[in-house]
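Whiteboard transcription, Tuesday session. T.W. wrote the C-alpha cells on the left side:
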C-alpha cells in the first residue's frame, strides 16, 4: 500500500484533520453515553421529553404523519425485541444442548436475558426520535396522507403483535420483567437466651 491509501490518513502518513475531528467527536459521544448508563430513570425521562416535543411539533405543523408512523413502527419493533428472550425457547425445544428457561419450581434460577438490552433499547429509541425530528425540517418527507387510517392501522398492528408476544410468553412461561433472584426470609429467632 502506498502512502495515503489507508482510511483516515493524509499524504504524509499522519491522520487527517477530518479523521481526527470525527474520531474525537466519537470519543466524546461515547464518554457521555458511558456516564449516562447508571441513570436509567433520567435517560428515559429525557427520551419521553423528546418524544413529547416531537409530538407537539408534528401537531403544530399538521404534517409528517408518515415519518411519525415509521417512528411508531420502529419503536414497536424495539419494544418487541426488548420483551423477547435472547435465545428463543421455541427453537430450543427440540435440542438440549443450550441454556433454557426454567419450567418447574425446583429448577435452578436463570435470569431473563433480553434480545435487546435496556440501554440499547433506550439508545435506539432516542436516536429514532432525533432522526424523526430532523426529518420534520425537510418538506420532502411531508407526504400527504389521511392520518386516521395510519392511526387505525398502527393500533391494529400493535394489538396483533402484542397478542402474539403475550401468547409466546405464556406458552414458554417467561416474564420479561424480573428483578433478580428471589430473597427468602429466614426463621425468626423467637427462642429465649439463657443468662448465667
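and on the right, the sequence the group agreed on:
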Amino acid at each position: 500500500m502506498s502512502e495515503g491509501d489507508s482510511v483516515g490518513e493524509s499524504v504524509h502518513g499522519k491522520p487527517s484533520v477530518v479523521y481526527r475531528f470525527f474520531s474525537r467527536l466519537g470519543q466524546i459521544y461515547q464518554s457521555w453515553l458511558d456516564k449516562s448508563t447508571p441513570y436509567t430513570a433520567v435517560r428515559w425521562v429525557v427520551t419521553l421529553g423528546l418524544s413529547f416535543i416531537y409530538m407537539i411539533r408534528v401537531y403544530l405543523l399538521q404534517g409528517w404523519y408518515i415519518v411519525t408512523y415509521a417512528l411508531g413502527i420502529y419503536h414497536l419493533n424495539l419494544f418487541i425485541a426488548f420483551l423477547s428472550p435472547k435465545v428463543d425457547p421455541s427453537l430450543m425445544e427440540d435440542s438440549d444442548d443450550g441454556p433454557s428457561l426454567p419450567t418447574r419450581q425446583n429448577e435452578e434460577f436463570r435470569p431473563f436475558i433480553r434480545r435487546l438490552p435496556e440501554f440499547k433499547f433506550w439508545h435506539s429509541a432516542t436516536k429514532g426520535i432525533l432522526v424523526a425530528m430532523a426529518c420534520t425540517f425537510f418538506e420532502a418527507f411531508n407526504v400527504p396522507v389521511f392520518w386516521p387510517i395510519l392511526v387505525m392501522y398502527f393500533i391494529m398492528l400493535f394489538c396483533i403483535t402484542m397478542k402474539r408476544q403475550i401468547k409466546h410468553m405464556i406458552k414458554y412461561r417467561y416474564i420479561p420483567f424480573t428483578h433478580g433472584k428471589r430473597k427468602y426470609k429466614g426463621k425468626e429467632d423467637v427462642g429465649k437466651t439463657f443468662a448465667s
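Someone added at the bottom: The chain has a mean pLDDT of 83.
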